[in-house]
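Quick one - inputs below.
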Amino acid sequence: MEPDKEKCHRPKAFDKMEGLVREMQDAENGVPVRSQKLFLTSIPSAFMGKSHQAHHRLHLGYDLIEWLMERLSIEESEALNLANQLCQYGYFFPVSDSKNLVVKDDSSLYRFQSPYYWPYANKAPDNIDYAVYLSKRSMRNKQRHALDDHELETLGNLRKNLANKWDFITIQAEEQVKLGKVLKKGEKIISDSQERAYWRIHRPPPGQISSLEQCPVPPRSRNGNRTKKRTVEDGKREVDILKASLSRTRVKVSQALESMVQYVETYSEYDPIISGTQPSNPWVSEDLTYWQLNSPLVEIPTEKRVKRWGLSMEELVSDPTGLQEFTNYLRKEYSHENIRFWMAVNDLRRSAQSQIQRKVNEIFEEFLAPGAPCEINIDGKTMERVHQEMRSPSRFTFDSAQDHVYTLLLKKDCYPRFIRSEHYKNLLAVGIQPTTKKRFFGFGQQKKKTSTSSAPNPALLQQQQQSSQPCGISTGALSKRRGSDRSLSGSAHELAVSGVRGGDNRVPHSHSQSNLSDIPYRVKKPGIAVTSGASTSEDVCPWEAHGPEPRSRKNSTQMDSGSSASDICVAVQVAAEVTDPKVKKAGHLPQQSTMDGGKSSRKLSAVCCIEPRRASVSVPIDRKIFEEVSKVPTPTPAPTPTPPVPNKSDVDNKSEEICRTFRKSLSVAGAANAPTISVSSATDDGDVLQEAGADVVDPKVDGAEDEKPMEERLSAAMVEEEEDEEQDHKRRTEPEVVISRLALAPLAEPDSESPISELPPEPNFLSEEAKSNDVCPWEDEETKCNVDGSFRKTYTTLGFL
Amino acid sequence: MTSEVSGPSVDTVESLMKEAETLKIKLEEERQKLNDVTLASVAERLEIINYMNIKPRRTLKGHQAKVLCSDWSPDKRHIVSSSQDGKMIIWDAYTTNKEHAVTMPTTWVMACAYAPSGNLVACGGLDNKVTVYPLSLDEDVTLRKKTVGTHTSYMSCCIFPNSDQQILTGSGDSTCALWDVESGQLLQSFHGHSADVMTIDLAPSETGNTFVSGSCDKLVLIWDMRSGHCVQSFEGHESDVNSVKFHPSGDAVATGSDDSTCRLFDLRADKEVATYSKESIIFGVNSVDFSVSGRLLFSGYNDYTVNVWDTLKCVRVCLLYGHENRVSCLQVSPDGTALSTGSWDSTLRVWA
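Output:
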């Protein structure tokens, strides 16, 4: 297209390619020569001049590939790709096919291009050169040198455009034809083919992109030196930068790397590509649940998301839901002016220039001016700086104050308190735990296994086609290359080794293969995200009934370790399915027993739903109450699948008790507490911190998933001694958990009725359970039984998820 | 920085260059003093990632020419892409539908970016300009387009720095610039590179005021957005730096270069800590991005492939084949569930 640009900027890759190509042509260690015997007729050996020897050689496609594989110790797929690149750039070309620059892994023949014709060997050819070449061909034997249609057309155009030079062009062409006649036949064939291949690269047929094309940006079209001329100013700047770098403090490489490794380890859990997504990756499963559960603002965040807030304050405030929860918490503590100030300054920094003046003043009036409605507490020095900056207001006016608030108040005080707070713990406890789905639901688009007997809808079909498109992954194991029996067309066993390609792929390595998924090398290994095909668990339908199930972590130890637990569930579910819909309610019972933890906690939550709002006057006080109450030892409900009933009533009583205590304390709190300022609440909190610290341990004690280092540190000290007490304590706090969360959730309506009666009658719950069951759209389950069956199989091979 | 007041001074370009050279040597010595361990050895305790099940899940067809740049919407499913023929397309990548197609008054639209709100996109290229388009389904997007800034050479990259109100650009004129979207005012310019700026990326921190740039002068520079000063520089690449990305921790940057290597530079150790290369990889890298944990580095090459690197063990995990021409751009989706790639074969693909 813009071929004259070629000369300008020669990418590094060409050096490397040329090095490789030279090695390939090495007489001893290069690609073996197989040609002469096969092609005696076209290239009589008699004509092979010594000087041209290299160019007379022909090579078999698979020899090229094999050589590359050995030389670079790479897999076949990679070698094939590389060989094709070299071919695209014109370092060798297929002898029998002048149209397609493609290397086939078979016995087709290839010839190396003369270095004279290598890209960048000379000035890029111009249109006159091309015109000469085309007219030359038009002068020669029609049979062998006839021009293609597009070439004819180009020749016509060139003749028009270069009319004034056409005589010259014709003379040149005639000269070259004459010269060509002097050549021996074999040499002629070779040079013709090389010339042709050269033009195939530099003037590709329409619709094909030349691999030599580059972005036509100005500096790249300048010859040679692409860096600008340096001025004194540049020099000074560089020296300054270097001087600054010299005085920079740096840490030991080991230290830096250790923390990087730690970071990655910590976050691997949150990396969908490494650890997968729960319940499934929407791109793979066609199920949007994951995105729905994780929208920026949600009523009830997933447990994982809440856990992530515990990693660092940055994690918390960069998540809109996290920021909202944090703000709510601080508001309860009457100390949310800090976070509000922080947000306002962030907003200021990102505001339009025209808004800056106004916003600076607003912020000052609200947070910093003497007697401001939301005065923040910063030291005199910082305040002084702010006042200085206020003289010339800018988007950075409050940076120092913001920094102060962020590091000293938010990060070192508010954030750790938040993480240790009931509020956070409760969020964690009610957090949604989407599990890998075990079966299909009727809603949403789902991808079905090909083996499904039910009729797939068109959208799905289309999707499947898409996903079987050309692609490939090749990993690790480089299996032995096949033997000498090479088929011409690329072959199945090759695919098995080297990954996927095919479909409409124009590029050489195209084999169509639909059955790839059956190929054994793809056996899934555990630990890596492979939610192939969606499976649905009942956790997916939570919004149909209540908010997602707040699963009590303590009771459900058997639920917690994802895989085994869900296996159990699968079993249960399947059992439930096999029994027909009429029996469904009954079928639900066994399940309940495995999950009683979750259920009972939800009931628990129901009980207390009213209280929280009123109780939220002051968190520290709440906590104390909880602490007190928790000192009354209560029998811990066994985590085994005991029937939930006794359990529940037990806890219900307790929680009722708490509620009462609450109300009592409330009046006290209400009186004393009204305008308590953040400072006092902070100190207030100090006492509680000790005890509260233990609360953070949640994940650890539960023996649930891995806990975060942060939490670990916070809690490590407390864990041992307070474990028992804490168990109780947690039980106590459980109700509150749900309180705020569920009370907020509009979906929790069915529950919110029951708390009104304070002690909800037992049957109520059961019926509700059943109701929720009915809502879940698996009515048509029987038809899908076999789907589930087959899916479950895959699921178990996955081992994990 | 006293660059503004150069005036007549005893310094000549030559003397300054000489000084710079000696400083560089000293700097390298300082860095070596603390170079006590390799990344691969620190990462030894980690398990090897030896299998990945990443496959193409979507193919976005609609561009008539090379796809040059793309960017994920913060909503995790839309993509904006720009191409050589001057088209910019907004895709719902999930359904593969095109929601907007905008024709730019230029070819080679080399950069495009989604604003954090998802309601605005910016693009530009050989026109030397950065133009923003508010997205609305009701009216023609081009009606409300607005040219924000103009460079003296092509615009190679752009990014919204956590705000719809500002845009940061890099250009062939070897500078970067921060613009006020509403007024088109140049808020800050960044001088320091001696050749085309090819790529920029923001530090991941919400409040962060730093960004990184990569250039054809082979340098990687870290900038303070507020002061406009370069605060750190990394050398090492042997050719153009085409792509640079902050590690999610914010403490390192990964780069991809025409020298066919990717590298990792640690900001605190102030040096290169890893090179990702193989003898068999001889083509330039156009684009790199991290998985959300930083464990994996995806890199798109001129040889049509995407290589996936284990950043810590410094080995290649796998190769992704599929594109039929150079992979020009690539980006992990905001929630890390997918990888988008754009190619000169005029398609985009989404892998997961």
